[in-house]
Amino acid sequence: EGFFITFTIEEGERYKFGKVDVSTALRNLKREELLPLLSFKEGDWYDADAVETVIKALTDAVGNRGYAFVDVRPRVQRDHEKRTIAVTFNIEEGPRVYVERIDITGNVRTIDPVIRREFDLVEGDAFNSSKLDRARRRIRNLGYFSKVDINNVPGSASDKTVIKVDVQEKSIGEVAVVAGFSTTSGPLGYLSIGERNLLTRRQDR
């Protein structure tokens, strides 16, 4: 009625980072400005996840400098005798991709413009992953949603992408009840009901 699956793992030799460097083919972009983003150095134990983290950090940093179309690729050289892996991050101009549209789903009470104004991107703009991450943080910081998923998928052409925004709203109402007793007026009560997203327009009332 079932199967037993055994995974056999053979631990190989551990490698350390060899020379770590950055190479850029973009004009007016100096490698010295990007070297501080390298989170590891020569002699550290090799870590593939750390390489991916640096790729993202370099992509975001270059995007923030105004380069919308970049391609960051690590060139790896393995030295079997010294057990080292040298990594050079090559930064080149990538394929031009533009935002075809921004699709928003999951919002019931919150109108689309409340979400869209947190984007530095609009339809027709050059796609920028750094601006996409910034919009994700801003929408989460609104405090209206328990879930915010933002991804980009291929559009109707090879140079177009569609940004998918999926949110899940959370309860943001507030109720306050205060009770007391006055020797002159007798029992006293106070009731306050608040809605932080009045009329779905990001208004407090």
Low-confidence stretches: none
Radius of gyration: 26 Å
Q: Strands of the largest sheet, in order across it?
A: 1-3-2
Counted beta strands: 8
Indicate the proportion of strand residues. 35-45%
The largest β sheet comes out as:
3 strands, mixed
- Tally of separate helices: 3
Shape call: extended
For the record, give the distance between the C-alpha atoms at the N and C termini, rounded to a whole number.
61 Å
Percent of residues in helices comes to: 10-25%
Order of helices and strands: EHEEEHHEEEE
Which secondary-structure class do the elements indicate?
Answer: alpha/beta
The average pLDDT score comes to 86
Walk me through this protein's architecture:
This protein has helices at residues 48-64, 112-116, 129-141, and strands at 16-24, 70-79, 84-93, 98-105, 145-154, 160-169, 173-182, 186-195. The protein is extended and about 90 Å long. The strands form three sheets. A three-stranded mixed β-sheet has the order 1-3-2, covered by helices on one side. A three-stranded mixed β-sheet has the order 4-6-5. A two-stranded antiparallel sheet has the order 7-8. With 205 residues, it is an alpha/beta fold. The chain is built from three helices and eight strands.
Name the descriptors.
single chain; 205 residues; alpha/beta; three-stranded mixed beta sheet; 3 helices; 17% helix; extended
